[in-house]
Amino acid sequence: MERSFGFSYAKIGTLLLSVPCVAIYTVTYTEFLTLFRPNFDMTLSDERKAFVYEKMIEALRNGPSNCEEEGVYCKRPETQHVDCGRVLEGDKTYLQTLTGDSRIPLIVDPILNMSCSAINSRIRPSHLHFEPLKLGGTAFARIVYTDYEFIEKQVQVSYHPQNLFCFAIDQKAPREFHDNMKSLSECLPNIILLP
C-alpha cells in the first residue's frame, strides 16, 4: 500500500517556480536598479527617473547604430537624443533642455567588456588610420579617481599612437576603477599608469 501525501511533481514544480516569482515581485524597482546598476543615482525623484527611462527606452528602440561601420562617432544611449550641432552653435534655448533637471545622468555599464580587444575597438576602431604627426605627439597627465568610461572616452577623443597619456590614480578610488585603469594601460602602449 502506497502513501500519498497529496504532492505531485506538478505541484512541486509550481511551488519551485512560484518562490522566485514572489521574490522578484517583492523587490521594488529601486532595489532592482540598485542590484543591477549599483552606481545609479537613487536620489533622483520619480519624475526624473521616468524622464531618464523614457529617453533610454527611446534610444534603445531606435536600435543599434551602424556608426562604427560608417566611421562616425557612436553616441551612448543616454545621449543619442542630443543634437551636437545645436550645442556647438550655442543654441541657449536648446542647451537649457539638456541641463539641470533635464540632464540625463550617464549610467555605468556593470558588464563593460575590459578585454584588450574590446578596449582597442572602443579607442582605436579599425576604420581609423593614423597619419604621423608632423610636430610629434602631445602628453596628457591627469589625476583620476572615478568615471572610468568617461576617462576612456577622453582618451578615445584625443587618441593618436604618438600621444602619451599618464594617469595617477587616487588611493581612495574603488578597486574596480584601479583594475579598469590597469587593463587600459596594459592594452595600449602609450598609456602610463603611475603607482
UniProtKB/TrEMBL annotation:
GO CC, alphabetical: membrane
Transmembrane helix as UniProt keyword: yes
Keyword Glycosyltransferase carried by entry: yes
Pfam families in alphabetical order: Branch
Principal place of residence: membrane
Keywords attached to this entry: Glycoprotein, Glycosyltransferase, Membrane, Transferase, Transmembrane, Transmembrane helix
Compartments in which it is found: Membrane
Transmembrane spans: 12-36
Origin superkingdom: Eukaryota
Record membrane topology: Single-pass type II membrane protein
GO terms assigned for molecular function: glycosyltransferase activity
InterPro entries, per database record: Glyco_trans_14
Name of the protein in question: Uncharacterized protein
